[in-house]
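Field notebook, page 453. I keep forgetting to write these up properly, so this time I am using the form the group agreed on. The chain and the ligand, flavin-adenine dinucleotide, are recorded exactly as supplied. Prediction of the bound pose follows.
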Amino acid sequence: MHIAENTLLKRMKVLSFGRQSNRLFNGPVIYWMNRDQRGQDNWGLLYAQKMAENMKVPFVVVFCLQKNFLGAVESHYRFMLEGLKEAAIYLQEKGIPFHLFSQSPETVIPEICDEWNTPLLVTDFNPLRIKRDWEEKVIEQVDCPVHQVDSHNIVPCWEASPKCEYAAYTFRPRILKKLTEFLVEYPVLKEQKYEKTWASNHDWMKHLASEYKHNGLHPPSGTKAAKVGLDDFLDNGLRRYASFSNNPMESAVSKLSPYLHFGQISSARCAIEIMKHAEVDENRENFLEQLIVRKELSDNFCYYQPFYDKTLAFPDWAKKTLAAHEHDHREYLYTMEELDQCLTHDLLWNAAQKEMKLTGYLHGYLRMYWAKKIVEWTPNAETAQQIAIYLNDTYLLDGRDPNGYAGIAWSVGGIHDRAWAERPVFGKIRYMNEKGCRRKFDVDGYIEYVGNL
Ligand code: FAD
Ligand code: FO1
């Protein structure tokens, strides 16, 4: 346990030491859940429980439901709430109350810390601006200390690197040398005496049926479904990952991104299970490269680069080359509406946009092609980035995520990439076209598949 204790402390950052006051902090420790929406394998919960034990008080989990979160639509909320319900029941069975509030955190968190005399507020780590603003406003208003735990990354973001990394090759050695220390089995969350006084407010469970539309083409939500997906990938997808993960027509990818995005499963759990069951081969290495290096590089980017969704974040060479080609002739120009309605001349692109809209999923290789074409068909990089973010976060179930902002900044502005041979419009930004796709997969088969959705 002492190893976990050690890693537990390195996963924690003090956001605020709290204000000295003579009030009696005899209430429960509050764990404010945002990004890692699961009961199992959750370092933030384990930390909050440990602190509550030390203080001899119970701990309570709180979630603040926020309308139109980064453009999320109803079916995204439906997926999230179903996962939260499963987490609430898991916690309930451990005697840990779960409270869902339908107000913004900066209002309700200070109120309940005050009302419940909370001695410590713990929250999970999220590099996105929206959560950091919430935390700032909460810290201004609460008297108690506020601690943050990185439950999302295997190597805590601030431990992996002290700065914004240039590319995967500069980030990889830093991450890999810390895996032994941080990729460890989780302790199990203990039961706690159930405090009737903090009984959960389960009226929110009925929200699921009435308030949020369901998209039948979304996968099933929650930690159990995520585990089924992981096992299925271990049995059927992983062995083909190295050869076929770039082929949207081969189901050789895990499709775990919605579960990882909403924190319904931890990437550490996926890595632990993969390392337990799969032999050391290029399939496993390629997958862990994506799951650990690429995914945690996105958090590194969003954490250290405040303009992660602006062209300001692009490397200088990219800014220069995009500016130099801003007035190149564009053979095609499309508005956001035309792109949204899949009305371009490019049947492959239209199919990718349609699949994204209908199913909330798009294969990684196609996401690159999809974003790169938006660069080609819009007046400049700013417009391309804004449109790509809007469509990505409106339709993808795994959208509104650091991986998305990094993926779009890579496609449009060459972050984590290098300069390529100069050409019109793209300058030295990596170019992709349908010919390249045809070399990789059956484009006509894909267009037909989407047509039948
Ligand atoms: P697998 O290949 O099975 O990989 C397993 C996990 O590794 C993924 O779930 C993901 O968490 C991580 N991963 C894989 N590829 C990447 C990558 N390139 N960068 C970072 N992490 C990765 N991912 C999102 O989660 N949300 C998004 O909104 C998103 N938007 C993207 C937009 C563009 C333009 C691009 C180029 C990429 C985007 N990605 C996004 C990254 C990647 O495409 C998806 O994470 C991946 O396709 C999810 O499918 P999967 O779970 O089957 O991936
Ligand atoms: N986090 C919250 O704390 N409250 C919400 O109401 C909320 C809604 C939401 C909707 C869609 C979505 O993709 C994410 C949402 N999140 C919400 C945040 C999410 O769990 C992640 O923290 C961020 O998207 C960063 O990855």
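OBSERVATIONS:
- The mean pLDDT is 94.
- Residues 2-152 form a domain with the Rossmann fold fold (CATH 3.40.50.620).
FOLLOW-UP: compare against the apo run.
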